[in-house]
Amino acid sequence: MLDDLDRRILRHMQSDPDQSLPDLADRIGLTASRLSRRLDKLRANGILRGLRAVLDWRALGFEVEVSLRVTLDKTQTRSFDEFLAAARDIPEVIEIQTFLGRVDVRLSVIARDMAHYQHIYRSRILTLPHISDIETLMHVARIKSDESLPI
């Protein structure tokens, strides 16, 4: 699937995502056009999904992060679909994960402060369809947050 050159390209891109294409090509020992073709191939194969800006939501004034573990009423046939569609519409929900087991969904919610979180919780979260139970986990510290892969 990936050869050594592809792995080197991806490692360099992960370590310094802001470098220009010519700089990356120089580091790896390729021409810019050959590197460009390799990147196109990685994109076409779904390995490289694109570059994105990573924002520090704390720097933008969001001080509270809460993880909500949600159990849904699975007696309703469309409970997952309807819940997920409604949860996607809440701007402060920055991540949605689904699980097999006792907990069905985890929502990661950010807020400016506790008053803002209470407003989101009461007016948006509690109105989501098909909730049978919610467990709230207040985020204290992020010990590791790394999207780099060991390639």
Pick out the low-confidence regions. none
Q: Trace the largest sheet across and list its strands.
A: 2-3-1-4
Please state the CA-atom Rg, rounded to the nearest Å.
21 Å
Briefly note the structural class of the backbone. alpha+beta
Number of strands: 4
For the record, give the distance between the C-alpha atoms at the N and C termini, rounded to a whole number.
Answer: 12 Å
Residue-averaged pLDDT: 94
Shape: elongated
What is the ordering of alpha helices and beta strands? HHHEHEEHE
Major sheet description: 4 strands, antiparallel
Oligomerization status of the protein chains: single chain
Query: Which strand-content bin applies to the residues?
Result: 15-25%
**Number of helices in the DSSP assignment:** 5
Helix content: 25-40%
Plain-language structure description:
The protein has 151 residues and is α+β, with helices and mostly antiparallel strands. It is 36% helix and 20% strand. It has 5 helices and 4 strands; from the N terminus they run H-H-H-E-H-E-E-H-E. Strands 2-3-1-4 form a 4-stranded antiparallel β-sheet. The relative contact order is 0.16. The model has no long low-confidence stretch (mean pLDDT 94).
